[in-house]
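Batch manifest, entry 17 of 40.
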Amino acid sequence: MNDVSELFWNATVEEIKHGYIYDDAAEEYICLVCGTRFMKGVIYSEEDVFYEAGKFAKLHLARAHTSMFDYLLSLDKKLTGLTEHQKMLINYFYQGRSDAEIVKELDGGSTSTIRNHRFTLREKAKQAKVFLAIMDLAEAKTGKQEKFISVHRTATMLDERYAITEQENEEIIAKYFENEGGGKLLEFPKKEKRKIAILKHVMKRFEPNKKYTEKEVNSVLKAVYDDYVTLRRYLIDYGFMERTSGGSAYWVKV
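Output type: structure tokens
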């Protein structure tokens, strides 16, 4: 089963805007934020109202995640390319605020400055469209390229350490785990690329949208590696998992 980040990055722009995709093979609607699945043909109920799977996926997005706009805007700058100031302005634009109203909200500046920001952001959107077209044409011309593993959206860094092809990833997993990835971890490497591949593989043993106690997390990790404390620390440090400040609950960051 693909992880949520992989589904997200493989989705079209329209699918990302909707917040979910439809998996033809599984006949399921899948939330791109948390990975919750809704099977086609199943009737879901909420407050004595019944919904088919597609409509319930939309309801889930609104109830669980407010809106796709809010979720996308909350993503880190390394994924959106937007500064906090730009995010704030886009949020005002989304609300339909006039330039004068935004100046008042900001308690300073001028309407001409806001207009310049609108212009700059629209130009940025145009550039993004052109860039996507260029990349599509380049990849179509060069034929099949090596695919890179998907980067989890909560990664605490985004650099060359994530430049891992699917083939490299398979080789790392086969080398460092028993039974070609199905068994225990033989050793925890020092090289960053290998750490990331291993941590990503280990995360498959946890369920998204589930809260774990520290004891439960330790139990899962002990089955993978004797030094489960090291694994647990890196899963937190690298943004694969989150926990409460007191460590009473852990969960997969999606």
